[in-house]
C-alpha cells in the first residue's frame, strides 16, 4: 500500500481550475520531485494534502486514511508535515522557541518538556545547536531555511513536503541543504520535493511528477523526464534538453 495517494484531485477557485484530476501514489521512503512552471498547481497540491484547502473533488489518502476534509492540525498530528517557500519564523522568538511551537501546536506534544526534547533533537540534527538561543530575526536566509526544516522535523513526520527549500540560496548553501535532505530521507521520512532547480531534482529524486496548467503531464525516472517532449515544451526548454544530452557521453 502506498503511504500517500491522490486520486482525481481537483481544486477550483471560481472559474479557475488550479489542480485538474491529479493522480499520484507515493511509496514509503521515496523522494518524489514535483516540478512545473510557475502557476502549474504545485503548491496548491501541497495545500490540498495538508488541509489548507478542501478539494473540490478527489481524495487524499495517507496510510489508508482519508485526509481530505480534515483540518491542518489533524493532518500534521497524523504524520504529514510541510515547509513553506517563504519562511516566516516568529522574529522575536529564539530558534528553540520557534521549533517548539509546531511540536506543541501541530504535533500535539503532551508537555513543554516533551516539546523541548523534540525541538532540541531537530536543532542538533540540522546543525543549529550554536544558534539555539538566537532570535530568528538575527538569522541569515540559509539559517532561516534550516530553521524551517527543524520546525517540520520536530513534528516527527512520516511524510514531509518541501516547498522550494533551496530558493534564494547560493551554490554552497544548496549543497549543504542537499545533504540535510538526504539525511532526513535516511531516517525513513518520505519526501515530496517542489523544486525549480533541476540539478537538485535530478540529484535527489528517484521519480519526478510534472504539472502544467494544474494537470499531470508526465511522471517517471529523472532521465525519462528530461527526454519527454511534453516536459521540454512546457517547462525545461530545448536549451536544457540539449545541454543535458551534451553532458552524457556517447555509448
Question: What series of H and E elements makes up the topology?
Answer: EEEHEEHEHHHEHEHEEHH
Largest sheet, strands/sense/barrel:
6 strands, mixed
Question: What is the number of helical segments per DSSP (H or I, 4+ residues)?
Answer: 9
Structural class: alpha/beta
Could you characterize what this model shows?
- This protein is an alpha/beta fold and about 250 residues long.
- Helix content is about 40%, strand content about 25%.
- The strands form 2 sheets. A 6-stranded mixed sheet has the order 6-7-8-3-9-10, sandwiched between helices.
- A hairpin with a 2-residue loop joins strand 4 and strand 5.
- Helix 3 crosses helix 4, helix 3 packs parallel to helix 5 and helix 4 (about 110-125) crosses helix 5 (about 140-155).
- The longest helix has 19 residues, at about 230-245.
- The chain is globular, with a radius of gyration of 18 Å.
- The N and C termini lie far apart (about 40 Å).
- The model has no long low-confidence stretch (mean pLDDT about 95).
Features:
single chain, 251 residues, alpha/beta, 4-stranded antiparallel beta sheet
Topology:
Layout: E1 4-13, E2 16-26, E3 31-35, H1 42-49, E4 57-62, E5 65-66, H2 72-78, E6 80-82, H3 95-105, H4 112-125, H5 141-153, E7 159-163, H6 171-186, E8 190-194, H7 198-204, E9 207-212, E10 215-220, H8 222-225, H9 229-247
Parallel strand pairs: 3-8, 3-9, 6-7, 7-8
Antiparallel strand pairs: 1-2, 1-4, 4-5, 9-10
